[in-house]
Amino acid sequence: MVSKCANPACPATFRYLHDGVLFYVTVEAAGRREDGGGGIPKHERFWLCGECLRKLTVIADPTGILVVPLQPGLVPRNSGTPARPWDSA
Prior knowledge:
4% of the residues lie in helices and 31% in strands. By secondary structure, the chain is mainly beta.
C-alpha cells in the first residue's frame, strides 16, 4: 500500500484518492540476463499529493523511478530525484 508522497522532500501522507494521483509504473526487472534479454516487467505504484502534482510527475528511467519537474516537451535524462519506494503491507 502506498503511504507517502513519492516526492522525497514532501511529508504528505496518503489518505484519500481524491487528493493527488496514483501512478502505475512498469519498471524493468533488475538483473538483466547475459544474453541481453530482460526479466519479467515489474509494476509499482507511486502517489503524488495534490501539491506536488502541480509541479512534478513520476517516470520510469533505466536507473529507477524518478520524480521530475513538469516541463513542456521532453524531460531530460537524469534530471530527477529517485522516488521513495512504495510501502507494501
